[in-house]
Amino acid sequence: MSTLLEKAIQLVQNTDIAFSKFITANDVGATGAHQYGYHIHKKAWPLLFDSPGEKGSNKDKYLTVKWQDDFETSSRFIYYGRGSRDEYRLTRFGKGFPYLANDNIGDLLILGKHSEDFYEAYVLSSDSEIEDFFAALNISSFETNGIIPKEFEPTSEEKLFECFLNYIESLTIDFPPTIDLANNSRSCYHKSYSITNSQIKSNPDKEILKWLEIEYDLFKTIENDRYAELIKTPFKTVENLVKIANTILNRRKSRAGKSLEHHLEEMFNIFNLQFQTQVITENNKKPDFLFPSIDAYNDLAFDKEKLTLLASKTTCKDRWRQVLNEADRIEVKHLFTLQQGISSNQLNEMNKYGVQLVVPKPYLSSFPTENRSQILTLDQFIELVSAKNI
Questions:
Q1: Contacting residues for 329 by C-beta, under 8 A, at least 6 apart
Q2: Nearest Cα to 173, choosing from 110, 222, 135?
Q3: How many other CB atoms are found less than 10 A from the CB of residue 273?
Q4: What is the pTM of this model?
């Protein structure tokens, strides 16, 4: 085994994330497409950035790449998202760079990340070296042009379940408070799937649904753990059965309502919004969220147009009227809900009384087409509040 091959294998084994691909005619500019530099498949974006590129704009970062354990280039990762383009490339290698010639077509490029701005790369040319590289890492030629999987590395789902079990083992009580459940489920999810604040900010509607889903999975895991022995034993009386069933159902309903509030609060914190929760307004009402503060609300000199109220309810077909008198100074009340679909008549009635729904973007399509313009997504609501607080 050549020294170069050994170093390429060690690079993959000793870095958290590495990439491989066969160098193509497009990479070396042999197709006449006037493109230059190594094309990086879209699914390999975690190698390059902390969040995927978004159509409509370009983004880039500069880095140092050490080639063949020999020389370095000051290069650039760039995402082209403007116009019809939607691709990632590694560019800028300096004059005389030896691995973007026609003779390199068919060579195997291996790229590993040491830090945000330092990478290491190898180019393998011979058939035997390429085959030995695949054999050593237990991958096939079909698995190139992407992130190289770590052998025996647990999947994100497995990491998540392990995190759940570790959390359950740490508990000193049967069921944790809802705030702890929400916080720990998010923590497990973020660690297991390598979720960053930048990713959350790029798509808050998607992430809050994921937070709710993951917390529910954790809650079910705790339930199964706590009741595993109980459900194996026959109940002595119907009354005992009903009592246990009611306890389970009441806990489930209580968790679901508070869960939504906890996750919205964390989302607003990530976006650095100014707000307070459960403050007291007129008639001892307690809005779920008041932006920017109760002091601003009570200050009659403060522009009321900069005040925002948000209630949160998992369902709202009947309950939306509860928010009408929660803050007299605020004419339009916002209501975040997980309700999927409400009739046009009800939506028009809400609009008449100054209630505007906020729903996760994926749920918007469940509402009548003619009413969707009256509904905000979570992302749009955050933009609205941010603009008021400037």
A1: 297, 304, 307
A2: 222
A3: 18
A4: 0.62
